[in-house]
Each structure stands twice: as structure tokens, then as C-alpha cells.
Automatic annotation (TrEMBL):
It holds the Pfam family PIG-L. It comes from the Eukaryota. This is N-acetylglucosaminylphosphatidylinositol deacetylase. Belongs to the PIGL family. GO terms for molecular function: N-acetylglucosaminylphosphatidylinositol deacetylase activity. One of its GO terms (biological process) is GPI anchor biosynthetic process. Transmembrane segments: none annotated. Its EC number is 3.5.1.89. It is an enzyme of class 3 (hydrolase). GO terms for cellular component: endoplasmic reticulum; membrane. It comes from Momordica charantia (Bitter gourd).
């Protein structure tokens, strides 16, 4: 009987969380993130380490930005060639970008000899900063989004991308330039699915605009985008996308 109550409570909270997301989508609720009130469109650069990072971790942010008309560019620092499938994975990212409504001419995927995918592959932060600076200059970028210092999963490449962005920010950038990092959560929250939207919304309260909680207004698009990464779309990643809080909500924190 106790187990039945637990399962019932689980289902009720799950459904309530999804309904909350649906309500946000239907009501077209606006966030103050990047002044998304319809008056100013930003040129935003999303910096990731591997193909599939954008779909597994950042899809709520991508859906938010594209739905509000911001001009989003994706910079992927490697082709994800750790298993010798880099050529395949590069094409998969282009397919996922189409699903996520990011123009293919605004998706750049690098295959630099010093930026190869893999645990133990240390990426030079100054090199990353130089590449980021070139991309920002080429496209008039005024906002950048990337991983935080833990990088969601602790992957060294994710963390290096964060420090590469920080290294870039040490240079003089305009006061209006904004930099944001995706907040990593503990393992319980990470696998709590849509439940985490409630904790995420609470965590950003009283942060004076330094944190924003972006709910995924179209979770099914995240599944479809990740499915384009067919070389990675194995059973445990299907479970990850289903139960990961990053499918349903992103909490972004301003990088000072």
C-alpha cells in the first residue's frame, strides 16, 4: 500500500510539473533574460565541447532564444572523435540544429588538432579564448552562454570550455556584453526530470537578475533533436534525456 502511494505521488508530481511547463508555453510567459520583452534582439553565442551537448544540456535555452527571435550561433569546439566517429557526429549536429531552428550557417564545428575529444585531453584555455574572440568579432556577438566550472557531468572538455570563456572575458569587453553559465546541480536534482523546475524557480529567487530559470517550452523537440545524434542515441542516453532535469529546465547564472 505504501508503495502504491509513493508511485501515485510520483505520477501526480510528474504530471503537475509537465502541466506547469505547458502552461508557460501556452501563456507565452516572458523572462527578463537577455531583455526578452520583444524590444531588443541579441546576437548570442552558445559554446559547447561536443556534438550532442546542445541537445542534452542546453535545449531549454536554445528553444527559449529561438522562439523569441534572438540570433543564435553555436560554436562546438570538437567533432567528438573519441570513438573515431567524429565525421558522423559532425553531421548529426547539423541535423539536430535544424530541429532546434538554428540556421546551419550559424553552426561552427571545429576539428583542431589541439582540441580533441576525450577524458584526459587537456585543452589550452588561451587557445579557446582566441577562437571565441574571433567568433564574437566575426558575428557581432553581444552575449555568450556556456558550461559552468563543473560542466554538468564533470567532463574535462566541458570544464575547459568554461575556463576558455573566462579567459576571453579577462580581456576588455563592452559593459553591455553578457556572459552566462549553465548551473550544474547535484545528482538527485540532475535526474529528477521535470520535478526540478520547482527547485530551479526557487533557487533563482532574490538573485537580482543574476540567475534566470528557463523552462523548456517544447520538451518533445529536445527528444527529437537528440535522436538526430543516432550514433549516441543508445538506451542509457534515452533514459538520460527522459529523466534529466536539463531536458526540462536550464538555470543560467551571470558570469561576472
Amino acid at each position: 500500500m505504501a508503495w502504491l502511494l509513493v508511485i501515485t505521488a510520483f505520477v501526480v508530481i510528474w504530471v503537475a510539473s509537465l502541466c506547469k511547463i505547458l502552461h508557460i508555453s501556452v501563456s507565452s510567459s516572458r523572462s527578463a533574460f537577455l531583455n526578452s520583452d520583444g524590444t531588443q534582439k541579441r546576437n548570442v553565442l552558445l559554446v559547447v565541447a561536443h556534438p550532442d551537448d546542445e541537445s542534452m544540456f542546453f535545449s531549454p535555452t536554445i528553444n527559449f532564444l529561438t522562439s523569441r527571435g534572438h540570433n543564435l550561433h553555436i560554436l562546438c569546439m570538437s567533432i567528438g572523435n573519441a570513438d573515431e566517429m567524429g565525421t558522423i557526429r559532425r553531421e548529426e549536429l547539423y541535423k539536430a540544429s535544424t530541429i532546434l531552428k538554428v540556421p546551419l550557417n550559424q553552426v561552427k564545428i571545429l576539428d583542431h588538432p589541439d582540441l580533441q575529444d576525450g577524458f584526459g585531453k587537456v585543452w589550452n584555455h588561451k587557445l579557446l579564448a582566441k577562437i571565441i574572440e574571433q567568433e564574437i568579432s566575426s558575428h557581432g556577438i553581444d552575449s555568450i552562454i556556456t558550461f559552468d566550472s563543473y560542466g554538468v557531468s564533470g567532463h574535462c572538455n566541458h570544464r575547459d570550455v568554461h575556463y576558455g570563456v573566462q579567459s576571453f572575458l579577462l580581456n576588455k569587453v563592452p559593459q553591455s556584453f553578457e556572459a552566462w553559465e549553465l548551473v550544474s546541480t547535484n545528482i538527485l536534482r540532475k535526474y529528477s526530470g521535470p520535478f526540478d523546475i520547482w527547485l530551479s524557480m526557487l533557487s533563482k529567487e532574490n538573485t537580482s537578475g543574476m540567475m534566470h530559470c528557463l523552462l523548456n517550452e517544447c520538451p518533445q523537440k529536445s527528444f527529437l533533436a537528440m535522436a538526430q545524434h543516432s550514433s549516441q542515441w543508445v538506451w542509457f542516453r534515452k533514459l538520460f534525456v527522459t529523466f534529466s532535469s536539463y531536458t526540462y529546465v536550464n538555470t543560467l547564472k551571470r558570469i561576472n
